[in-house]
Specification:
This is histidine kinase. It catalyses: ATP + protein L-histidine = ADP + protein N-phospho-L-histidine. It is found in: Membrane. Keywords: Kinase, Membrane, Phosphoprotein, Transferase, Transmembrane, Transmembrane helix, Two-component regulatory system. By secondary structure, the protein is of the alpha+beta class. The protein has 3 domains: about 210 residues, 2-Layer Sandwich (Heat Shock Protein 90), CATH 3.30.565.10; about 230 residues, 2-Layer Sandwich (Beta-Lactamase), CATH 3.30.450.20; about 90 residues, Helix Hairpins, CATH 1.10.287. About 55% of the residues lie in helices and about 15% in strands. Strands 4-3-7-6-5 form a 5-stranded antiparallel β-sheet. α2 packs antiparallel against α3 and α10 packs parallel to α14. It is rod-shaped and about 175 Å long.
Length: about 600
């Protein structure tokens, strides 16, 4: 809240006050703003930067699971096909043979074996029905037939390879469109990305023995086996083998093998989809980043240009852009720069007014001194000359006091900026100030007693009420804060009759500290309640000599209070009949 707003609030509340009951002084000083843990700009940056990595991570995790599920499905299909092939061969390509007699008069035992010629025909016919390469091994592990060799151009795997070659040749013969060319580039990029490799090497050695093929060797023991492999070109190969049974005997093994082009194609398509999603996310990220850069960069440039203009000495003509509507860190920066510029303008205006006030205040004693000096040569009476010298001495003393006070006031801001701030116990500080004042009041009372003037004891003349069970702590400079209340007490005592009291009330709530200095003097003119804090304003009681005060005391007090983040104001104390019965100075600070 700006100081002008605070002062207006004080005036409004003061005008409403019609008795000593008063108003809520705690509401005058606004509470200190609490810092936000996470600003709006920070949230925006985090949201923009997290989107793309999340999409990529989810896509990559899903891709690995997808490949595994495809391989499992293909292997299950090949296991079923190998069992069907084994059953068909067991029914159509075997014949019985005599095994021999267990003893001389016994009936010869018969066993069934694969008929090589029939078996090869079956392998050739079955190989043409699928894309698999079919191998048939006898019970002793010898290779009987291979669909790739038996079927020639008509084998399943050969036909698939030929069809793919024809499609590729046709595609190359036709001029590709732009979308097709972009798809090819995308495919090339995807193929350049290494595929996850956790498969064993494919054992295609061209050997004729069953032992060269692990799945077939397992099937020879009576179990079905299927495995995914990786060949030398990094491509997926699938094999499945099933035993050929007659009764309980394994008389051969059927092994199917095929490439994993469908799986690789599906994985490639999935990777293409992931890449598409990534490119989409990347495009969105770039767009949002450009938007974010603009929403940050443009206002920052405006603020920088305005600040540079202020630095170049155009502070009175340049307005800092008001971006407080953004509700983020840039809005806070704009508010801070606006406040700084306003403070700078106020400081420049204050310096100008101060210079004018100093010139005016010094001219008065100088004019008086000049008149006395010009009059001295023509004065004949010694009494008049002595009186003239007394005026000169008074003006010189007044000038000396003015120059000292002006020097102190001009250095105050710089000294306050260098002061080391600490926790100040206000109750203890005020008690020490009052104890010192009471000693001086005791000496004054003795002088008044000699003159027959009735006075109050120091303990009644100067009282303090602390309405807080715990220590009242304010963050600031104890010496400067003591200077404020020394000045307020001096003013209060100078306007209060010696048989009346001056009271200091100290209290606090959860956020603020309140100090009130009340006297029982004549009060303050209503139209001077704000003027008394201006520089060189002086309104002294009748018993004090003219010029004994520079009029800077309350101005310095307000300057110190503002430097500590507080507020000071004056008001009159009224009774129930609305009659003034004294003045009250109120100071409000934030608690430490």
């Amino acid at each position: 809240m700006a100081l002008g707003t605070v002062i207006k609030k004080i005036k409004d509340r003061r005008n409403k006050a019609s008795s000593d009951v008063g108003y809520d002084v705690w509401a005058i000083l606004p509470p200190m703003p609490r810092p936000r843990i996470l600003g709006g700009l920070t949230v925006r940056i985090l949201a923009v930067n997290v989107i793309a990595p999340l999409v990529l991570v989810v896509g990559l995790l899903y891709l690995g699971q997808y490949r595994d599920s495809l391989i499992r499905a293909e292997l299950e299909t090949m296991q079923i096909q190998s069992q069907l092939f084994a059953g068909a061969i067991a029914e159509a390509a075997v014949r019985p043979v005599e095994k021999g007699k267990p003893f001389f008069f016994a009936k010869p035992e018969e066993i069934e074996i694969l008929v090589p010629e029939l078996s090869r025909r079956m392998v050739r016919r079955l190989g043409q029905t699928t894309e698999n390469r079919t191998r048939l091994f006898s019970g002793d592990g010898t290779l009987i037939g291979d669909s790739l060799e038996l079927g020639g151009e008509r084998s399943g795997e050969a036909m698939v390879a030929a069809a793919r070659s024809a499609v590729a040749a046709e595609s190359e013969a036709v001029q590709p469109s732009l979308s097709e060319q972009m798809n090819r580039w995308g495919q090339a990029i995807i193929e350049w990305i290494p595929m996850q490799s956790d498969l064993p090497d494919y054992p295609d050695t061209g050997a004729q023995s069953i032992t060269a093929y692990p799945d077939a060797a397992v099937a020879l023991t009576g179990r079905i086996s299927a495995t995914a492999w990786e060949d030398r070109q990094g491509k997926i190969r699938l094999t499945a083998a099933a035993p050929i049974r007659k009764v309980e005997n394994v008389i051969g093994v059927v092994m199917l093998s095929r490439d994993g082009r469908e799986i690789e194609s599906a994985i490639t398509q999935m990777r293409y989809d992931v890449l598409t999603v990534f490119l989409g996310a990347l495009s969105i990220t770039i767009f949002l980043s450009m938007y974010l850069a603009g929403s940050i960069g443009r206002p920052l440039k405006k603020l920088a240009r305005a600040a540079e203009a202020v630095r170049m000495g155009k502070g009175r003509q340049i307005d800092i852009p008001d971006l407080t509507h953004r509700k983020d860190e840039i809005g806070e920066l704009s508010a801070a720069l606006n406040a700084m510029t306003t403070a700078l303008r106020d400081r420049m205006d204050t310096i100008e007014r101060f210079a004018a006030d100093v010139s005016h205040e010094i001219k008065n004693p100088l004019t008086s001194l000049r008149s006395a000096v010009e009059t001295a040569p023509i004065v004949k009476s010694k009494a008049d000359l002595d009186r003239l010298f007394g005026i000169m001495q008074h003006d010189v003393n007044r000038l000396n006091r003015l120059i000292s006070d002006i020097s102190n006031a001009s250095r105050l801001d710089a000294e306050l900026s260098r002061e080391e701030m600490g926790n100040v116990n206000m109750g203890r500080m005020l008690t020490q100030i009052i104890d010192g004042r009471r000693v001086a009041l005791a000496q004054q009372n003795r002088r008044h007693a000699e003159s027959g003037v009735e006075t109050l004891p120091p303990e009644q003349r100067l009282r303090i009420n602390i309405d807080s069970a715990e220590a009242v702590i304010v963050r600031g400079s104890e010496g400067r804060l003591a200077q404020v209340f020394e000045n307020l007490l001096s003013n209060a005592l100078s306007f209060t009759p010696v048989n009346k009291s001056v009271t200091i009330n100290l209290s606090q709530n959860r956020e603020q500290v309140l100090i009130q200095v009340e006297d029982e003097g004549p009060g303050i003119p209503e139209n001077k309640l704000d003027t008394i804090f201006e520089r060189f304003y002086s309104e002294r009681p009748a018993h004090e000599d003219y010029g004994s005060h520079s009029g800077l005391g309350l101005s310095i007090a307000r300057q110190i209070v503002k430097a500590h983040g507080g507020v000071i104001f004056a008001e009159n104390i009224r009774d129930r009949d609305n009659q003034i019965r004294g003045a009250r100075f109120t100071v409000v600070f934030n608690r430490a």
